[in-house]
Specification:
Order of helices and strands: HHHHEEHHHHHHHH
Strand order of the largest sheet: 1-2
Number of helices: 12
Shape: globular
Number of strands: 2
Distance between the termini: 25 Å
Helix content: 55-70%
Largest sheet: 2 strands, antiparallel
Number of domains: 1
Length: about 350
């Protein structure tokens, strides 16, 4: 627990104190946000606001985790390194996307093909590596079995190791793409994605600490009241570092935002969420805990699908938060109410997680 507290505390301070320094650097370089012309008109006043704030979130997370490891003497585990690799790798893809937007003053950054290739390279590397590095109990960071609250009986390796690896890589990359795009779509209002991410990653601190306290000591002792997650405490330390970084960054990202996280932050946070859900064996539960992100993605899917079929729109604008903007809701009102919804989803998700353990 000491490592969890140190990780979260240091990353919070780094993000809180480091963000204004990064804002000055971006302002000096004139790296400001480009605003879409077809979006809500209230957003035009945000043009030129510094972006790429995800750099601060990533660096604060890495330094907070490293400091906790040094102070407590923990040897970095494969699980923690893999989540941080996924987070940083997708952050680099997002950084390139943001930099192209800023340098060319347009709303489009990397081409869709380039972004898919970049995300794919990072995702495939993560997925393949996650099935390596067995510990003394022969547990690897990830499993080829689909997981809900723990691994289920649905094993992707049902027809052999090779096919299982391929199917797992596809499944993992589906989750990585889905979560990174979900957080990216949510990042449309000041503080919305940052606050929601803070709540969700905070929930994963609780989940992983609980798993650590109930870890099965051997394959033989595995039962309904213990978990087979390989490195739950290390995952809790990573989740705490991300939570602290989001907490510190939110001080400057809340309305009126002094800086935006950009694709650098949203892709990184989405990747970290995917990594935590895969390695903590809570892939389906993650969709409940991060339910707000799921709802926002679904609003976009519904809008596009319904329009293609009927040439009519369900919402005034998608994603969902822009619909409420065009309906006359204030930005702060939308953000706070969406944070409440995110908290309700987290409460349900953590409640389901605990109830499953109680029932056994």
């Amino acid at each position: 627990m000491r490592a969890v507290l140190i990780s979260g505390g240091i990353s919070l301070l780094l993000a809180l104190l480091g963000t204004p320094l990064f804002i000055r650097f971006l302002v000096h370089r004139q790296y400001g946000q480009f605003i879409r012309q077809d979006g809500p008109t209230a957003h035009f006043t945000k043009r030129g606001t510094p972006t790429m704030g995800g750099v601060v979130i990533i660096l604060a997370t890495l330094l907070g985790w490293a400091a906790a490891s040094l102070v407590t003497g923990y040897v970095p585990s494969a699980s923690a390194v893999l989540v941080l690799f996924l987070m940083t790798g997708l952050g680099v893809v997002g950084f390139l996307d943001d930099f192209i937007k800023i340098s060319r003053q347009r709303s489009l950054g990397l081409s869709a093909r380039s972004k898919i290739i970049g995300q794919g390279l990072v995702g495939v590397t993560f997925a393949v590596a996650a099935l390596q590095f067995p510990n003394s109990n022969f547990r690897t960071p990830a499993s080829t079995r689909i997981s809900f609250i723990r691994d289920t009986g649905l094993d992707l390796a049902f027809a052999g190791a090779t096919l299982g690896l391929i199917l797992f890589v596809l499944w993992a990359n589906f989750l990585i793409t889905a979560w990174s795009n979900a957080v990216n779509l949510t990042d449309g209002l000041d503080g919305l994605a940052t606050g929601a991410s803070l709540i969700v990653f905070g929930a994963y601190v609780i989940v992983c600490v609980w798993q650590s306290n109930q870890t099965c000591q051997s394959i033989v002792s595995a039962g309904p009241r213990c978990y087979e997650t390989r490195d739950p405490l290390d995952l809790a330390v990573v989740a705490a570092a991300i939570t602290g970084a989001c907490f510190g960054f939110l001080w400057w990202n809340a309305s009126p935002a002094k800086i935006f996280m950009g694709d650098t932050g949203s892709l990184a946070l989405g990747g970290a969420l995917a990594g935590l859900s895969i390695l903590s064996r809570t892939e389906i539960l993650g969709a409940i805990i991060g339910g707000l992100f799921v709802v926002i993605v679904l609003s976009d899917v519904i809008q596009i699908g319904f329009f293609k079929m009927t040439r009519r729109r369900v919402f005034k604008m998608a994603p969902l938060h822009h619909h409420f903007e065009l309906s006359g809701w204030g930005e702060v009102t939308i953000v706070i109410r969406f944070w409440i919804i995110a908290g309700l989803f987290v409460a349900v998700g953590v409640g389901v997680f605990y109830a499953e353990w109680v029932v056994g």
